[in-house]
Amino acid sequence: MSALVALCLFTAFTLALGYANKARCTGPDFDEWGRSQPAYQERAYGDACYSDIQNLWIGRDIDRHVFPYVHGGIDQDGSLHGGVVEYPVLTGVLMWLGAAFAHTDAGFLAASALLMAPFGIAVAWWLGRLSGWRALLWAIGPPLVLYAFHNWDLPVVACATAAVFVVHRCTSMSLRRRATLAAVLLGLGVALKLYPGIFVPPLALYVLTGGSDGPPRRWDVRGALQVVGAALATVVVVNLPFAIAGFGGWLASFEFQSRRQVDISTNSVWYWGFRHWAGTDEFQSVVGVVSPLLVLLSFAVACWIGWRRFRRTGTYPWIQVCAAMLCGFLLLHKVHSPQYTLWLLPFFVLVSVRWGWIAAYLLADLAMGISIFGWLYLNMTGQPSGIHDGFTAQALMIGIWGRAALLVGLFPAFLAARSSVEDRPHRRA
Protein backbone atom coordinates (compact mmCIF):
# COMPACT_ATOMS: atom_id res chain seq x y z
CA MET A 1 0.00 0.00 0.00
CA SER A 2 2.80 2.44 0.82
CA ALA A 3 4.34 1.77 -2.61
CA LEU A 4 1.02 2.65 -4.27
CA VAL A 5 0.74 5.85 -2.25
CA ALA A 6 4.28 6.80 -3.27
CA LEU A 7 3.38 6.05 -6.88
CA CYS A 8 0.39 8.37 -6.69
CA LEU A 9 2.51 11.11 -5.09
CA PHE A 10 5.06 10.81 -7.90
CA THR A 11 2.21 11.12 -10.39
CA ALA A 12 0.79 14.17 -8.63
CA PHE A 13 4.21 15.82 -8.75
CA THR A 14 4.59 15.02 -12.47
CA LEU A 15 1.11 16.38 -13.14
CA ALA A 16 2.07 19.57 -11.32
CA LEU A 17 5.08 19.87 -13.61
CA GLY A 18 2.78 19.29 -16.58
CA TYR A 19 0.49 22.09 -15.47
CA ALA A 20 3.41 24.44 -14.84
CA ASN A 21 4.69 23.69 -18.33
CA LYS A 22 1.40 24.72 -19.95
CA ALA A 23 0.75 27.62 -17.57
CA ARG A 24 3.85 29.36 -18.92
CA CYS A 25 1.63 30.46 -21.80
CA THR A 26 -0.96 32.18 -19.60
CA GLY A 27 -1.14 35.87 -18.69
CA PRO A 28 0.21 38.11 -17.41
CA ASP A 29 -2.38 40.32 -19.11
CA PHE A 30 -5.69 39.46 -20.77
CA ASP A 31 -7.74 41.09 -23.51
CA GLU A 32 -11.50 41.66 -23.40
CA TRP A 33 -12.16 38.04 -24.34
CA GLY A 34 -9.96 36.65 -21.59
CA ARG A 35 -7.17 35.69 -23.98
CA SER A 36 -3.64 35.83 -22.56
CA GLN A 37 -1.50 38.72 -23.68
CA PRO A 38 0.94 39.80 -24.96
CA ALA A 39 1.65 37.76 -28.15
CA TYR A 40 -0.26 34.67 -27.10
CA GLN A 41 0.27 32.61 -30.26
CA GLU A 42 3.94 33.50 -30.65
CA ARG A 43 4.62 32.50 -27.05
CA ALA A 44 2.62 29.28 -27.35
CA TYR A 45 4.75 28.10 -30.26
CA GLY A 46 8.04 29.77 -29.47
CA ASP A 47 8.09 28.66 -25.81
CA ALA A 48 6.58 25.20 -26.62
CA CYS A 49 3.83 25.66 -24.04
CA TYR A 50 0.83 25.41 -26.37
CA SER A 51 -2.27 23.51 -25.20
CA ASP A 52 -5.58 22.85 -26.91
CA ILE A 53 -7.27 23.64 -23.61
CA GLN A 54 -6.05 27.22 -23.51
CA ASN A 55 -6.37 27.67 -27.26
CA LEU A 56 -10.02 26.55 -27.44
CA TRP A 57 -11.11 29.05 -24.81
CA ILE A 58 -11.95 31.23 -27.82
CA GLY A 59 -13.89 29.97 -30.82
CA ARG A 60 -16.21 27.31 -29.35
CA ASP A 61 -18.34 29.57 -27.10
CA ILE A 62 -16.58 28.05 -24.11
CA ASP A 63 -15.76 31.54 -22.87
CA ARG A 64 -19.50 32.33 -23.01
CA HIS A 65 -20.34 29.30 -20.82
CA VAL A 66 -22.71 27.85 -23.43
CA PHE A 67 -23.76 24.27 -22.66
CA PRO A 68 -22.39 22.16 -25.54
CA TYR A 69 -24.25 20.66 -28.51
CA VAL A 70 -27.82 21.66 -27.60
CA HIS A 71 -28.15 24.91 -29.56
CA GLY A 72 -25.32 24.72 -32.06
CA GLY A 73 -24.33 23.30 -35.41
CA ILE A 74 -21.74 23.39 -38.17
CA ASP A 75 -21.49 25.97 -40.95
CA GLN A 76 -20.82 25.34 -44.62
CA ASP A 77 -17.17 26.25 -44.14
CA GLY A 78 -16.84 23.65 -41.38
CA SER A 79 -16.73 26.07 -38.44
CA LEU A 80 -18.68 25.19 -35.31
CA HIS A 81 -21.06 27.49 -33.47
CA GLY A 82 -23.52 27.55 -30.60
CA GLY A 83 -21.38 25.68 -28.09
CA VAL A 84 -20.57 22.67 -30.29
CA VAL A 85 -17.09 21.22 -29.77
CA GLU A 86 -15.33 18.65 -31.94
CA TYR A 87 -15.21 15.96 -29.27
CA PRO A 88 -17.68 13.34 -28.01
CA VAL A 89 -20.28 14.44 -25.49
CA LEU A 90 -18.62 13.62 -22.17
CA THR A 91 -15.52 15.55 -23.15
CA GLY A 92 -17.78 18.44 -24.13
CA VAL A 93 -19.34 18.36 -20.68
CA LEU A 94 -15.89 18.33 -19.04
CA MET A 95 -14.94 21.37 -21.08
CA TRP A 96 -18.11 23.16 -20.00
CA LEU A 97 -17.48 22.30 -16.34
CA GLY A 98 -13.90 23.55 -16.57
CA ALA A 99 -15.13 26.87 -17.91
CA ALA A 100 -18.05 27.26 -15.50
CA PHE A 101 -16.26 29.65 -13.13
CA ALA A 102 -13.47 30.81 -15.43
CA HIS A 103 -13.22 34.22 -17.08
CA THR A 104 -9.84 33.87 -18.77
CA ASP A 105 -7.95 31.15 -20.64
CA ALA A 106 -5.66 30.90 -17.61
CA GLY A 107 -8.60 30.16 -15.32
CA PHE A 108 -9.95 27.64 -17.82
CA LEU A 109 -6.61 25.82 -17.96
CA ALA A 110 -6.30 25.75 -14.16
CA ALA A 111 -9.86 24.51 -13.61
CA SER A 112 -9.52 21.88 -16.34
CA ALA A 113 -6.28 20.66 -14.78
CA LEU A 114 -7.97 20.33 -11.39
CA LEU A 115 -10.80 18.36 -12.98
CA MET A 116 -8.52 15.95 -14.80
CA ALA A 117 -5.67 15.44 -12.34
CA PRO A 118 -7.59 12.86 -10.25
CA PHE A 119 -8.01 10.73 -13.37
CA GLY A 120 -4.26 10.75 -13.92
CA ILE A 121 -3.63 9.72 -10.33
CA ALA A 122 -6.27 6.98 -10.59
CA VAL A 123 -4.49 5.59 -13.65
CA ALA A 124 -1.28 5.38 -11.60
CA TRP A 125 -3.09 3.51 -8.82
CA TRP A 126 -4.67 0.98 -11.19
CA LEU A 127 -1.44 0.44 -13.12
CA GLY A 128 0.41 -0.05 -9.86
CA ARG A 129 -2.11 -2.67 -8.75
CA LEU A 130 -1.86 -4.39 -12.14
CA SER A 131 1.85 -4.28 -12.93
CA GLY A 132 3.74 -3.09 -9.86
CA TRP A 133 6.83 -0.97 -10.28
CA ARG A 134 6.43 -0.76 -14.07
CA ALA A 135 3.76 1.86 -13.38
CA LEU A 136 6.59 4.34 -12.80
CA LEU A 137 6.60 4.66 -16.59
CA TRP A 138 3.28 6.43 -16.22
CA ALA A 139 4.03 8.25 -12.98
CA ILE A 140 7.29 9.92 -14.01
CA GLY A 141 7.20 9.56 -17.79
CA PRO A 142 7.95 12.61 -19.96
CA PRO A 143 4.59 12.28 -21.80
CA LEU A 144 2.73 13.17 -18.62
CA VAL A 145 4.65 16.44 -18.41
CA LEU A 146 4.20 17.22 -22.09
CA TYR A 147 0.58 16.18 -22.61
CA ALA A 148 -1.34 15.71 -19.36
CA PHE A 149 -3.03 19.08 -19.89
CA HIS A 150 -2.52 19.47 -23.62
CA ASN A 151 -6.06 18.22 -24.30
CA TRP A 152 -8.78 16.36 -22.41
CA ASP A 153 -7.23 12.86 -22.53
CA LEU A 154 -6.63 11.83 -18.92
CA PRO A 155 -10.29 10.82 -18.31
CA VAL A 156 -10.43 8.56 -21.36
CA VAL A 157 -7.09 6.92 -20.48
CA ALA A 158 -8.57 6.32 -17.02
CA CYS A 159 -11.59 4.55 -18.55
CA ALA A 160 -9.40 2.27 -20.67
CA THR A 161 -7.09 1.46 -17.75
CA ALA A 162 -10.00 0.88 -15.37
CA ALA A 163 -11.44 -1.64 -17.83
CA VAL A 164 -8.25 -3.70 -17.67
CA PHE A 165 -8.20 -3.40 -13.88
CA VAL A 166 -11.78 -4.65 -13.53
CA VAL A 167 -11.13 -7.67 -15.74
CA HIS A 168 -7.97 -8.76 -13.96
CA ARG A 169 -8.38 -7.60 -10.37
CA CYS A 170 -12.09 -7.70 -9.47
CA THR A 171 -11.92 -11.47 -9.19
CA SER A 172 -14.79 -11.85 -6.74
CA MET A 173 -17.07 -11.57 -9.78
CA SER A 174 -17.33 -14.02 -12.66
CA LEU A 175 -15.38 -13.31 -15.83
CA ARG A 176 -18.56 -12.50 -17.72
CA ARG A 177 -19.64 -9.91 -15.16
CA ARG A 178 -16.20 -8.36 -14.96
CA ALA A 179 -15.95 -8.12 -18.71
CA THR A 180 -19.42 -6.60 -18.94
CA LEU A 181 -18.48 -3.93 -16.42
CA ALA A 182 -15.26 -3.33 -18.34
CA ALA A 183 -17.29 -2.95 -21.52
CA VAL A 184 -19.38 -0.26 -19.81
CA LEU A 185 -16.16 1.57 -18.93
CA LEU A 186 -14.98 1.28 -22.52
CA GLY A 187 -18.34 2.64 -23.65
CA LEU A 188 -17.86 5.63 -21.36
CA GLY A 189 -14.43 6.01 -22.92
CA VAL A 190 -16.02 6.16 -26.37
CA ALA A 191 -18.20 9.02 -25.10
CA LEU A 192 -15.00 10.86 -24.08
CA LYS A 193 -12.74 10.06 -27.05
CA LEU A 194 -13.57 7.29 -29.50
CA TYR A 195 -10.48 5.09 -29.26
CA PRO A 196 -11.46 2.77 -26.33
CA GLY A 197 -14.15 1.33 -28.62
CA ILE A 198 -11.47 -0.57 -30.54
CA PHE A 199 -10.74 -2.60 -27.39
CA VAL A 200 -14.23 -4.11 -27.24
CA PRO A 201 -13.67 -6.87 -29.88
CA PRO A 202 -10.48 -8.20 -28.19
CA LEU A 203 -12.28 -8.21 -24.84
CA ALA A 204 -15.20 -10.08 -26.38
CA LEU A 205 -12.79 -12.66 -27.83
CA TYR A 206 -11.15 -13.01 -24.41
CA VAL A 207 -14.51 -13.80 -22.87
CA LEU A 208 -15.48 -16.10 -25.76
CA THR A 209 -12.38 -18.18 -25.18
CA GLY A 210 -12.78 -18.43 -21.40
CA GLY A 211 -10.26 -15.87 -20.23
CA SER A 212 -7.01 -17.06 -18.68
CA ASP A 213 -8.29 -20.44 -17.55
CA GLY A 214 -7.13 -22.27 -20.64
CA PRO A 215 -9.15 -23.65 -23.58
CA PRO A 216 -12.87 -23.55 -22.74
CA ARG A 217 -15.10 -26.56 -22.47
CA ARG A 218 -17.43 -24.57 -24.69
CA TRP A 219 -17.35 -21.14 -26.27
CA ASP A 220 -18.98 -18.43 -24.18
CA VAL A 221 -20.90 -16.87 -27.06
CA ARG A 222 -23.43 -15.30 -24.73
CA GLY A 223 -20.70 -13.63 -22.69
CA ALA A 224 -18.98 -12.24 -25.78
CA LEU A 225 -22.26 -10.82 -27.10
CA GLN A 226 -22.98 -9.37 -23.67
CA VAL A 227 -19.66 -7.50 -23.76
CA VAL A 228 -20.42 -5.98 -27.16
CA GLY A 229 -23.99 -5.18 -26.16
CA ALA A 230 -22.96 -3.50 -22.91
CA ALA A 231 -20.47 -1.24 -24.70
CA LEU A 232 -22.98 -0.28 -27.39
CA ALA A 233 -25.75 0.32 -24.85
CA THR A 234 -23.49 2.59 -22.80
CA VAL A 235 -22.60 4.68 -25.83
CA VAL A 236 -26.28 4.99 -26.78
CA VAL A 237 -27.46 5.86 -23.27
CA VAL A 238 -24.82 8.59 -22.86
CA ASN A 239 -25.35 10.12 -26.31
CA LEU A 240 -29.13 9.85 -26.54
CA PRO A 241 -30.01 12.83 -24.28
CA PHE A 242 -27.75 15.11 -26.33
CA ALA A 243 -29.12 13.80 -29.63
CA ILE A 244 -32.67 14.44 -28.41
CA ALA A 245 -31.93 17.87 -26.96
CA GLY A 246 -30.12 19.14 -30.05
CA PHE A 247 -29.64 16.63 -32.85
CA GLY A 248 -27.95 19.11 -35.19
CA GLY A 249 -25.43 20.17 -32.57
CA TRP A 250 -24.75 16.61 -31.49
CA LEU A 251 -24.23 15.46 -35.08
CA ALA A 252 -22.04 18.45 -35.87
CA SER A 253 -19.18 17.14 -33.74
CA PHE A 254 -19.02 13.95 -35.82
CA GLU A 255 -19.42 15.85 -39.07
CA PHE A 256 -16.55 18.13 -38.10
CA GLN A 257 -14.22 15.15 -37.71
CA SER A 258 -15.41 13.51 -40.93
CA ARG A 259 -14.65 16.73 -42.84
CA ARG A 260 -11.25 17.20 -41.24
CA GLN A 261 -8.50 17.61 -43.82
CA VAL A 262 -5.03 16.12 -43.70
CA ASP A 263 -2.93 19.17 -42.84
CA ILE A 264 -0.31 20.30 -40.35
CA SER A 265 -2.87 20.15 -37.52
CA THR A 266 -3.31 16.40 -38.05
CA ASN A 267 0.44 15.75 -37.65
CA SER A 268 0.13 12.26 -39.20
CA VAL A 269 2.34 10.37 -41.64
CA TRP A 270 -0.28 11.16 -44.28
CA TYR A 271 0.61 14.83 -44.01
CA TRP A 272 4.36 14.54 -43.53
CA GLY A 273 4.74 11.88 -46.22
CA PHE A 274 2.47 13.49 -48.81
CA ARG A 275 2.24 17.15 -47.83
CA HIS A 276 3.05 18.33 -51.36
CA TRP A 277 -0.26 16.78 -52.46
CA ALA A 278 -2.24 17.57 -49.29
CA GLY A 279 -3.78 20.69 -50.80
CA THR A 280 -5.64 18.79 -53.52
CA ASP A 281 -9.18 17.50 -53.24
CA GLU A 282 -8.17 14.23 -54.91
CA PHE A 283 -5.60 13.48 -52.23
CA GLN A 284 -8.02 14.28 -49.42
CA SER A 285 -10.66 12.00 -50.97
CA VAL A 286 -8.22 9.11 -51.38
CA VAL A 287 -6.90 9.39 -47.82
CA GLY A 288 -10.48 9.58 -46.54
CA VAL A 289 -11.00 6.06 -47.89
CA VAL A 290 -7.54 4.47 -47.69
CA SER A 291 -6.76 5.53 -44.11
CA PRO A 292 -9.81 3.93 -42.43
CA LEU A 293 -9.48 0.79 -44.57
CA LEU A 294 -5.86 0.34 -43.51
CA VAL A 295 -6.76 0.99 -39.88
CA LEU A 296 -9.47 -1.68 -40.01
CA LEU A 297 -7.06 -4.07 -41.74
CA SER A 298 -4.52 -3.58 -38.94
CA PHE A 299 -7.25 -4.34 -36.40
CA ALA A 300 -8.18 -7.55 -38.19
CA VAL A 301 -4.54 -8.65 -38.44
CA ALA A 302 -3.97 -8.00 -34.71
CA CYS A 303 -7.08 -9.99 -33.73
CA TRP A 304 -6.11 -12.83 -36.06
CA ILE A 305 -2.55 -13.06 -34.69
CA GLY A 306 -4.02 -12.99 -31.20
CA TRP A 307 -6.28 -15.89 -32.16
CA ARG A 308 -3.32 -17.89 -33.45
CA ARG A 309 -1.56 -17.29 -30.14
CA PHE A 310 -4.67 -18.47 -28.31
CA ARG A 311 -4.65 -21.70 -30.30
CA ARG A 312 -1.03 -22.22 -29.28
CA THR A 313 -1.14 -21.12 -25.61
CA GLY A 314 -4.78 -21.52 -24.56
CA THR A 315 -5.24 -17.84 -23.57
CA TYR A 316 -6.37 -15.05 -25.85
CA PRO A 317 -3.88 -12.15 -25.32
CA TRP A 318 -6.46 -9.39 -25.31
CA ILE A 319 -4.26 -6.73 -23.71
CA GLN A 320 -1.48 -7.32 -26.23
CA VAL A 321 -3.98 -7.27 -29.09
CA CYS A 322 -5.40 -3.96 -27.82
CA ALA A 323 -1.90 -2.49 -27.72
CA ALA A 324 -1.16 -3.62 -31.28
CA MET A 325 -4.49 -2.29 -32.53
CA LEU A 326 -3.70 1.08 -30.99
CA CYS A 327 -0.35 1.09 -32.80
CA GLY A 328 -2.19 0.49 -36.08
CA PHE A 329 -4.58 3.31 -35.33
CA LEU A 330 -1.87 5.81 -34.35
CA LEU A 331 0.19 5.01 -37.43
CA LEU A 332 -2.52 4.87 -40.09
CA HIS A 333 -5.26 7.25 -38.95
CA LYS A 334 -5.25 10.65 -40.64
CA VAL A 335 -4.95 12.42 -37.27
CA HIS A 336 -2.07 11.81 -34.85
CA SER A 337 -2.22 14.55 -32.24
CA PRO A 338 0.76 14.79 -29.86
CA GLN A 339 -1.22 13.83 -26.75
CA TYR A 340 -2.14 10.44 -28.22
CA THR A 341 1.08 9.18 -26.63
CA LEU A 342 -0.88 9.17 -23.36
CA TRP A 343 -3.13 6.49 -24.90
CA LEU A 344 -0.15 4.24 -25.60
CA LEU A 345 1.78 4.82 -22.37
CA PRO A 346 -0.28 2.45 -20.14
CA PHE A 347 0.40 -0.39 -22.58
CA PHE A 348 4.13 0.07 -22.03
CA VAL A 349 3.27 -0.74 -18.42
CA LEU A 350 0.80 -3.56 -19.07
CA VAL A 351 2.78 -5.41 -21.74
CA SER A 352 6.38 -6.50 -21.17
CA VAL A 353 7.99 -5.29 -24.37
CA ARG A 354 11.73 -4.78 -24.34
CA TRP A 355 12.91 -1.59 -22.68
CA GLY A 356 14.70 -0.53 -25.84
CA TRP A 357 11.35 -0.13 -27.61
CA ILE A 358 10.02 2.03 -24.81
CA ALA A 359 13.10 4.24 -24.48
CA ALA A 360 13.31 4.76 -28.24
CA TYR A 361 9.63 5.67 -28.52
CA LEU A 362 9.76 8.12 -25.62
CA LEU A 363 12.84 9.81 -27.09
CA ALA A 364 11.26 10.08 -30.55
CA ASP A 365 8.08 11.43 -29.01
CA LEU A 366 10.03 13.95 -26.96
CA ALA A 367 11.79 15.16 -30.11
CA MET A 368 8.45 15.54 -31.90
CA GLY A 369 6.56 17.00 -28.94
CA ILE A 370 8.99 19.88 -28.49
CA SER A 371 10.23 20.56 -32.02
CA ILE A 372 6.77 20.69 -33.63
CA PHE A 373 6.06 23.97 -31.85
CA GLY A 374 9.45 25.40 -32.66
CA TRP A 375 8.84 24.54 -36.32
CA LEU A 376 5.42 26.19 -36.24
CA TYR A 377 7.03 29.28 -34.70
CA LEU A 378 9.56 29.46 -37.52
CA ASN A 379 6.76 29.26 -40.06
CA MET A 380 4.67 31.85 -38.24
CA THR A 381 7.51 34.35 -38.14
CA GLY A 382 8.63 33.69 -41.72
CA GLN A 383 12.02 32.23 -40.79
CA PRO A 384 13.66 29.40 -42.76
CA SER A 385 12.21 26.08 -41.60
CA GLY A 386 13.50 23.49 -44.07
CA ILE A 387 15.37 20.34 -43.20
CA HIS A 388 18.66 22.01 -44.18
CA ASP A 389 17.96 25.23 -42.29
CA GLY A 390 18.53 24.08 -38.74
CA PHE A 391 18.10 21.47 -36.04
CA THR A 392 14.41 22.24 -35.36
CA ALA A 393 13.17 20.70 -38.60
CA GLN A 394 15.69 17.87 -38.32
CA ALA A 395 14.53 17.01 -34.80
CA LEU A 396 10.92 17.12 -35.97
CA MET A 397 11.61 14.65 -38.78
CA ILE A 398 13.51 12.39 -36.40
CA GLY A 399 10.51 12.47 -34.08
CA ILE A 400 7.83 12.01 -36.74
CA TRP A 401 9.46 9.22 -38.72
CA GLY A 402 11.21 7.63 -35.75
CA ARG A 403 7.87 7.34 -33.99
CA ALA A 404 6.22 5.95 -37.13
CA ALA A 405 8.92 3.32 -37.59
CA LEU A 406 8.68 2.34 -33.94
CA LEU A 407 4.90 1.92 -34.21
CA VAL A 408 5.49 -0.48 -37.10
CA GLY A 409 7.92 -2.46 -34.95
CA LEU A 410 5.81 -2.29 -31.81
CA PHE A 411 2.84 -3.87 -33.60
CA PRO A 412 4.42 -7.37 -33.71
CA ALA A 413 6.44 -6.72 -30.54
CA PHE A 414 3.27 -6.22 -28.49
CA LEU A 415 1.65 -9.32 -30.01
CA ALA A 416 4.67 -11.49 -29.20
CA ALA A 417 5.22 -10.17 -25.67
CA ARG A 418 3.74 -11.44 -22.45
CA SER A 419 1.44 -9.39 -20.30
CA SER A 420 2.88 -7.90 -17.13
CA VAL A 421 -0.51 -8.44 -15.48
CA GLU A 422 -0.50 -11.61 -13.42
CA ASP A 423 -3.99 -13.04 -13.15
CA ARG A 424 -5.32 -14.09 -9.78
CA PRO A 425 -7.59 -17.09 -9.34
CA HIS A 426 -11.13 -16.16 -10.28
CA ARG A 427 -14.54 -17.55 -10.93
CA ARG A 428 -14.96 -18.84 -14.45
CA ALA A 429 -18.65 -18.26 -15.22
Mind explaining what this structure looks like?
Its main location: membrane. Pfam families: GT87. It is a multi-pass membrane protein. The chain crosses the membrane at residues 84-101, 108-127, 147-167, 179-207, 227-251, 285-307, 313-332, 344-377, 397-417. Helices cover 64% and strands 2% of the residues. With 429 residues, the protein is mainly α. It has a domain at 262-429. It has a two-stranded antiparallel sheet. β3 and β4 form a beta hairpin. It is globular, with a radius of gyration of 22 Å. The model has no long low-confidence stretch (mean pLDDT 94).
Number of strands: 4
- Considering DSSP H and I runs of 4 or more, what fraction of the residues is helical? 55-70%
Q: Nearest-angstrom radius of gyration?
A: 22 Å
**Alpha-carbon distance between the two ends:** 30 Å
Beta percentage is: under 5%
- In the sheet with the most strands, the strands line up as 1-2
Low-confidence runs (pLDDT<50, min 5 residues)?
Answer: none
How many helical stretches?
18
Largest sheet: 2 strands, antiparallel
Order of helices and strands: HEEHHEEHHHHHHHHHHHHHHH
Question: What overall geometry do the principal axes of the alpha carbons give?
Answer: globular
Break the fold down into its secondary structure elements and pairings.
Layout: H1 2-23, E1 29-30, E2 36-37, H2 40-46, H3 52-55, E3 73-74, E4 80-81, H4 89-99, H5 105-131, H6 136-139, H7 142-147, H8 154-169, H9 175-190, H10 200-208, H11 221-245, H12 247-259, H13 269-274, H14 281-313, H15 318-332, H16 341-350, H17 355-380, H18 391-416
Antiparallel strand pairs: 1-2, 3-4
Helix pairs in contact: 1-5, 2-17, 4-5, 5-8, 8-9, 9-10, 9-11, 10-11, 10-15, 11-12, 14-15, 15-16, 15-18, 17-18
Pfam families: GT87 (PF09594)
Membrane topology: Multi-pass membrane protein
Family: Belongs to the glycosyltransferase 87 family.
